[in-house]
Amino acid sequence: MNARDIDLSTTQIQLLTALCNEHDVEDAPVTSGAVATVLDRSSGTIQNQLANLQSVGLVESMQGPTGGYRPTEAAYEVLDRESLDNAETVTVSQAFERVDATVEAIDLTNVHHPTECTAHVHFQATLPAISIGDPIVVGPTPSSALVVAGEVTAVTETADEVVLDVRRIDAPVTEE
User: Fold this and answer.
1) What is the mean pLDDT of residues 104-118?
2) What is the pLDDT of residues 81-93, one digit of tens each?
3) Domain that holds residue 58
4) Is residue 71 located within the same domain as residue 123?
5) Does 165 lie in the same domain as 122?
6) Alpha-carbon gap, residue 18 to 8, rounded angstroms
7) Is pLDDT above 90 for 146?
8) Phi first, then psi: what are they for 89, rounded to 5°?
9) What is the DSSP string of the chain?
10) Under 8 Å CB-to-CB from 87, ≥6 apart: which residues?
11) Which of 8, 50, 68, 158 could staple 29 via S-S, CB 3.0–4.6 A?
């Protein structure tokens, strides 16, 4: 069975995303309590869901005093994302605080209409300090040196994706 053929519920996708985010930040097994805190759910509910994800090969259980759960490569494949091994970080600036974060993708809409442009910024980590209404700046990106600045209009439940009302996009002009 191909990992992409696994049909997950919205709750399972949120849980798997939170597990991957926490694992990528800590680079260690993640407890069900840590995932429960991120998702604001009970630890028992999370443990049951993690057992289900383990039965389909998306999660590994690690025993011992530093144990917890780790996402498998199949988990990253199901979520259509790469592990952090090959990723590069960008700076996210909010309220004069800078955070290094790995951005999975920046999807821009309506670039031709600057007053209606939005950006969906997908992070490979949870950024819990970002809230709706916050002004943030993302970039420069490693390959294109793109910088996107705007106001947060939405944050996913797992705090790894934000939607920005874009105020400014900067990219260097290069002569060929």
Assistant:
1) 74
2) 766 555 566 777 7
3) 3-78
4) no
5) yes
6) 14
7) no
8) -95, 155
9) --GGG----HHHHHHHHHHHHHHHHHSS-B-HHHHHHHHT--HHHHHHHHHHHHHTTSEEEE-STT-EEEE-HHHHHHTT---GGG--EEEEEETTEEEEEEEEEEEEE-TTSGGG-EEEEEESS--TT--TT-EEEE---TTT--EEEEEEEEE-TTSSEEEEEEEEEE------
10) 102, 104, 124
11) 68
pTM of the model: 0.56
Of 41, 21, 36, the C-alpha closest to 126 is 21
- 39-80: per-residue pLDDT in tens? 888 888 899 999 989 999 999 988 888 889 998 888 888 887
Specify if 175 maps to a domain.
no
Cα angle 124, 125, 131 (rounded to 5 degrees) comes to: 115
Q: How many residues does the chain have?
A: 176
CA-based nearest residue to 32, from 13, 17, 52, 15: 15
- Report the Cα 33 to chain-centroid distance in Å: 19
